[in-house]
Amino acid sequence: xxxxxxxxxxxxxxxxxxxxxxxxxxxxxxxxxxxxxxxxxxxxxxxxxxxxxxxxxxxxxxxxxxxxxxxxxxxxxxxxxxxxxxxxxxxxxxxxxxxxxxxxxxxxxxxxxxxxxxxxxxxxxxxxxxxxxxxxxxxxxxxxxxxxxxxxxxxxxxxxxxxxxxxxxxxxxxxxxxxxxxxxxxxxxxxxxxxxxxxxxxxxxxxxxxxxxxxxxxxxxxxxxxxxxxxxxxxxxxxxxxxxxxxxxxxxxxxxxxxxxxxxxxxxxxxxxxxxxxxxxxxxxxxxxxxxxxxxxxxxxxxxxxxxxxxxxxxxxxxxxxxxxxxxxxxxxxxxxxxxxxxxxxxxxxxxxxxxxxxxxxxxxxxxxxxxxxxxxxxxxxxxxxxxxxxxxxxxxxxxxxxxxxxxxxxxxxxxxxxxxxxxx
Length: 425
Ligand code: COA
Hints:
The protein is α/β, with parallel strands linked by helices. It contains 18 helices and 11 strands.
């Protein structure tokens, strides 16, 4: 069966997480992704957070499936020529170097357009144009500058970053969307274009509801925030809301049986208005169905703390899975707090290919996350990440159509790595 992006070739000049997330998604959708890496070390994540000596780290392997790897010294003249040849033949170039790195290599947008007017040149940067555009950025910097940290955590505590990699992987995802749209537009225009995803912008996009709340503050308190019910005044910026639900249906995380020893024995419980009567029945508080202080959503808002404390008396008598089963019988929205261990062992996620087991020649079997979007006509098979430079010769020969003599010349120049032979040798 074909794939959605069959025939699209990508020059993947990315490293760490944000860029590789993007190109991995495109590879799963069928693009031929050629990852250019620095000879010797490659993508820095190959060696970061290593769990097995001398094997590519899970950090690397889980972000670089379905790609080919070529090693190339982009600062060597012959290496630059090879890069230019790749730019001429690829449809898309993706990079997430620090600001100005590609320009310093000599690859300005103007130069890239000269080399290939159909090229889609896509970048992740920490910030868009403005006061911070020259700054290097990692995940948590983006979470802090995009509005996530100031709105995450508890009111009385410091800002908190989230485990979800919304700055890196989130921005990679945004970039992939921009690239696919640019490929589509090129069909009509014949031209490539520049695509930029700034991490601050990507995080802010995911924090859209918090900018919504910022504006609502001008018109009164945010009544669905539990601080309203607690009588705590609002300041002039969207506050941290603990585990309050971000939407119009109040929710909170409640203890379940075993919480004393299991850090994940909790359930997220939403008091959705249409199932209020069912909630009251399940917890044995039927008088609240008609009581004027509890019957209507507006009446409940100032009492959320008390209400959730009462519901928690019930959830603490059940395991999170028992509670989930019972609540779902009544269509009450809820979700057990699943640990990574439980998710890794979840059978249904294996069956859908969301969690896949991959075999790697150096590290053996490991788990990864497959394509989280399922396309009925474009199945995503997860292929192990490439070893460093595994496809160097193949790419020079089959993609760039260089003959053996030329490949030897390039090798001898040191552009592919290894020691450059001395003149006397
Ligand atoms: N051959 C030769 N040199 C190479 C090379 C190759 N194949 N690949 C990379 N390099 C060089 C570059 O030319 C550059 O050198 P220069 O500074 O002398 O011009 C250097 O390696 C890479 O620089 P940089 O990207 O700034 O790396 P860094 O490790 O200092 O910074 C980041 C890492 C992530 C902070 C930075 O890349 C960044 O801000 N990226 C944009 C935002 C982003 O994606 N952040 C999230 C990452 S998950």
